[in-house]
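From the shared-data thread, chain only:
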Amino acid sequence: MLKKPETLFVLGYMLLPLFALLSAIVGLTMILGGNKILGIIVLIVVTQVFAFGAFFALRARKAALLEEPDASPK
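Structure, as tokens:
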């Protein structure tokens, strides 16, 4: 299922960047709310995991599209 270009498109362009944005907002809110250590961990670690996950999903999508045989009608 994670080899389909459609699934990787949704992950790489929609879900993982959205989760990265939301975790950055949560991390900044935690820092401003006084929980600095946990906020920095969320901001640095969790946000970067989602951002790099999106990057790798897009790379996997590109590879899956290049491997896909040409199915265009003639």
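The mean pLDDT is 89.
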